[in-house]
Design brief:
The complex is a heterodimer of chains A (about 525) and B (about 300).
Chain A lengths: L6 H27 L13 H4 L2 H11 L9 H11 L2 H6 L1 H15 L15 H14 L5 H4 L1 H30 L3 H14 L8 H13 L7 H6 L1 H9 L8 E2 L9 H5 L22 H5 L5 E2 L16 H19 L20 H7 L5 H5 L5 E3 L12 E3 L12 H5 L10 H4 L6 E4 L5 H5 L5 H5 L7 E9 L5 E9 L9 H5 L8 E4 L24
Antiparallel strand pairs in A: 1-2, 3-4, 5-8, 6-7
Helix pairs in contact in A: 1-6, 3-7, 3-17, 7-13, 7-16, 9-10, 9-11
Chain B lengths: L2 H18 L15 E5 L3 H11 L12 E6 L15 H13 L4 E5 L6 H7 L2 H7 L3 E3 L6 E5 L7 E5 H4 L3 E5 L1 E5 L3 E3 L20 H12 L3 E10 L12 E10 L2 H10 L9 H8 L12 E5 L1
Parallel strand pairs in B: 1-12, 2-3, 2-7, 3-4, 7-10, 8-10
Antiparallel strand pairs in B: 1-11, 5-6, 8-9, 10-11
The chains are: A mainly alpha (about 525), B alpha/beta (about 300).
């Protein structure tokens, strides 16, 4: 028997790897472009998300409104209907990352593919059913495990900051070695990238990415096989695809290499066992087959095929479990009363609608020029884990910037022009007179007033007599906030020289998007529903 | 090179330099340049150029081969018509004139308050200065170094090396209202040439400004008053916060420039504590009536 591997499938495999690199590169490029690049308008850097049918479906069902940009997901659906899960194998940047690490782990002999017990392929379907069932009740659970959200969030809040810290080390080293020329050049380049180096949950979110990558030691592309709800959705859609695996029995030597090396445990051998909903068309089987016995001809002959067998009882019980879990998400008081520290980005929809749409992808956090947008932990309840909130002590809301509203892939943050954004109030500043330098210590300061970006300024100065410990009185200009003018941008809190617990701080009260978190009654003067 | 060798070379070099030094050139009979130039006119570029000519040309401040730092105010994310940052045309003209005077390199930078990428771009200064051939540097934490500033009040602070390391520093502030200092002129501009917790310096801002101005001691100060900010300083926000004055005030004595700048706002220099402190320490002059001020309108 002639032993020769198939040239065609080795070429296809090479093309597939090339395609994965290209899309991963595109992902990185778009993510680094998600920053202030000199124009008020940033362009569709969030487009990747719109090709994701899972995010589109969940945002549409949970948000009860179709966001037009998700029409692009139709391309993915069509591709999958005709060609199967090619998007998983050829396009998905997280899939590419996992495949790359699977490859590395195999090369380094850290992972040896085993024929033995099947990984629980069905989990991802149950996860998908759970997410879809939740969306019926207005819960958006897609973002935590959606591959794009997972990847973007991890890179924004962990990988890029880590690279930023590495670059800082490198630049410091170069200066130490008196190489100030290259150090300056690299330094200027990194300044221009405006990588936010500080994220409150960076350690946690980065740890999850690391864990997901390390799962490739257990099984190749463990994420794609077992966890990915988007992959599960595409698997369900791939029921009628055209190209089907066929093993040429006359060539096959029953070596089982294809089964062992299959990235997603689609069981190419024997071909009656092949699970087309699991196959991502990576063509590893075709390329490794020592006798070139494997092909993917277009066949329309209906044939017996294997699927991941989902337990019918579990299919029913999963939505019921979701239904039971629903109240758990709503026990938290976040839905009843706004949290003081939950400053949402300007343009954010009213909280329930915001939560129904936000997919926790972190695009807004990446775009934020000051790094003030941070992943929430408990401030917005369990549903709101990793949704964006402004933390003025980390970074303030830049006055003439509306980038976060432009990059939101689901419209959870309504797109605003800079002009529109200037009028949006996201919270209100408060002076802590017990800590403020003029009030408490009788010392001059006015730093908050100096930085207040509105004109006329929302922070006014009043002469305040402070009683000092020695009984003397010191009269200084002290800040007083005009709440009607204050937009809650938080620059006062950010720049306050009382660094540990600023003497002026912003809370969400008065945020324009909320009907319950209001402060002033001036809305009664305007037309109802004007916002 | 060993330290001993180094010392010996320095000594030899010094001797050699001393031996070949040319006799001092006879002082020109021409009139001494004025203490201050105060020029009004129809374009920021023209008045800047005229002011420098009145002061004897950029060559009196910049020598051939110098690395010059032009330090404008690029602190705020505001466009030129809001007069929160130095006029870009003024900066551009200064850069051009530095090169004309033989400067090797001109650095334009500022430790801005808003995001530097935004302020540098939207102030128009980045584009204007680059067009004139300047090296425009975004402020970077690597370039802030704690050092002795030999101040009367504060002794050390983080200094922005890209400003400090230049052979000649040209201060190019803009005249603006400020709630604490009443006005912000050249001396306040040095808060953009330092790092650290500079917002804490507001507690003793007047003394801080004097110490910093003495430390940076610019070769030349060119106060942009093309459009000044008269309220809501130091960043304004509406064109109505500004007044078009079409003026530039320049001079070697940074204290005198600030003293003259105060009068733009109808303030007598003696009323401003930071000017008083600096004058008491004999760092410059604020007795405007005795200064030779060349006023021109072009």
């Amino acid at each position: 028997m002639k032993k020769e591997r198939s040239k065609k499938y080795r070429l296809l495999q090479a093309l597939r790897i090339l395609s994965q690199w290209a899309f991963f590169g595109l992902f990185l490029f778009l993510l680094t472009r998600t920053r202030f690049t000199g124009e008020d308008v940033i362009g569709p850097v969030e487009r990747f998300f719109h090709f994701d049918p899972l995010l589109g479906l969940v945002a549409t069902i949970a948000g009860r409104v179709f966001f037009a940009a998700f029409a692009w997901a139709g391309v993915t659906v069509l591709l999958t209907l005709v060609l199967g899960r090619v998007v998983c194998g050829w396009v998905c940047p997280l899939g590419g990352l996992h495949q790359f690490f699977s490859f590395l782990f195999k090369k380094a002999r850290l992972h040896r593919p085993k024929a033995a017990p099947a990984a629980p392929l069905k989990w991802k379907y149950y996860i998908l059913i759970f997410i879809l069932a939740g969306s019926l009740f207005g819960l958006n659970l897609a973002g935590w495990l959606d591959p794009l959200s997972f990847l973007y969030r991890s890179f924004t809040t962990a990988v890029f900051p880590a690279l930023g810290h590495a670059a800082t080390g490198l630049i410091k080293l170069l200066y130490l070695l008196k190489l100030s020329g290259p150090a300056g050049t690299i330094g200027q380049f990194f300044e221009s990238l405006t990588i936010n180096p500080v994220y409150i949950q960076g350690f946690f979110i980065g740890g999850l990415l690391l864990a997901a990558v390390l799962l490739n030691l257990v099984r190749e592309r463990f994420w794609c096989r077992v966890l990915c709800p988007a992959g599960a959705l595409l698997g369900l859609l791939s029921a009628g695809n055209v190209f089907k695996l066929k093993i040429d029995r006359s060539k096959c030597i029953d070596c089982g290499l294809c089964n062992l090396q299959c990235q997603t445990q689609a069981s190419p051998f024997p071909d009656g066992d092949w699970k087309r909903a699991e196959c991502v068309y990576c063509f590893t089987c075709g390329a490794v087959c020592p006798t070139a016995a494997i092909g993917f001809p277009a066949r329309d002959v209906p044939r017996k095929e294997k699927r991941v067998s989902l337990d019918r009882r579990k299919i029913i019980w999963t939505p019921i479990a979701a239904l039971a879990a629903l109240p758990l998400f709503r026990i938290n008081p976040a839905g009843r009363r706004a949290a003081a520290s939950l400053l949402r980005p300007p343009g954010a929809l009213p909280e329930p609608r915001f939560l129904a749409r936000c997919v926790k992808c972190g695009e807004c956090m990446k775009a934020c020029p000051t790094g003030g947008l941070q992943p929430a932990l408990g401030e917005a309840g369990p549903e709101g884990l990793w949704t964006p909130r402004l933390v003025p002590r980390v970074g303030y809301c830049e006055y003439y910037c509306s980038l976060c509203s432009q990059v939101c892939p689901t419209g959870a943050i309504k797109e605003l022009t800079v002009e529109e954004k200037l009028k949006v109030k996201i919270g209100t500043a408060w002076v802590d007179k017990n800590r403020c330098l003029p009030y408490a210590l009788g010392k001059p300061c006015i730093v908050c007033e100096e930085h207040c970006p509105t004109s006329p300024k929302a922070i006014k100065l009043v002469d305040n007599p402070a009683l000092l410990p020695d009984g003397k009185v010191s009269v200084q200009k002290a800040p007083s906030v005009d709440t009607a003018l204050c937009i809650g941008c938080g620059i006062c809190e950010n720049k306050c020289p009382v660094v540990d617990r600023p003497a002026i701080y912003c809370t969400s009260i008065g945020e324009q998007r909320s009907e319950t978190n209001r402060l002033l009654l001036d809305f009664l003067d305007s037309e109802p529903g004007s916002y | 090179m060993k330290r001993r060798e180094f010392m010996r070379n320095i000594a030899l070099g010094g001797l050699a330099l001393g031996a070949v030094r040319k006799p001092a050139r006879p002082v020109q009979a021409a009139a001494k340049p004025p203490d201050l130039a105060w020029v009004e006119g129809e374009s920021p570029a023209a008045i800047t150029r005229a002011a420098l000519e009145a002061l004897g040309g950029m060559k009196s401040f910049v020598s051939r081969g110098d690395v010059v730092c032009v330090k404008p105010n690029i602190g705020w994310d505001r466009t030129p018509e809001l007069a929160a940052c130095t006029n870009p045309e003024t900066v551009k003209t200064l850069v051009e004139m530095c090169f004309e005077a033989g400067a090797k390199e001109v650095v334009v930078t500022d430790h801005s308050t808003n995001q530097a990428a935004r302020t540098f771009l939207r102030s128009g200064i980045q584009a204007a200065a680059k067009q004139a051939g300047a090296k425009v540097l975004l402020p970077s934490s690597f370039r802030m170094k704690k050092m002795s500033i030999r101040g009367e009040w504060f002794k050390e602070w983080e200094v922005f090396l890209d400003v400090y390391e230049a052979d000649k520093i040209i201060n190019a502030p803009i005249a603006k209202h400020h709630s604490l200092s009443r006005v912000t002129l050249g001396m306040k501009n040095w808060l953009g040439a330092i790092g650290g917790a500079r917002n804490q310096l507001h507690q003793r801002l007047d003394e801080a400004k004097v110490d910093l101005a003495r430390f940076f001691n610019p070769a030349l100060t060119v106060l942009d008053a093309w459009r000044i900010l008269v309220r809501n300083g130091p960043q304004g926000g509406r064109p109505s916060d500004t007044e078009l004055r079409k003026t530039v005030i320049a001079g070697r004595d940074w204290l005198a420039v600030d003293a003259a700048g105060a009068t733009l706002f109808g303030i007598k220099p003696e009323e401003l504590p930071f000017l008083k402190i600096a004058a008491d320490r004999k760092l410059g002059r604020l007795d405007l009536e005795r200064l030779r001020i060349e006023k021109r309108t072009i």
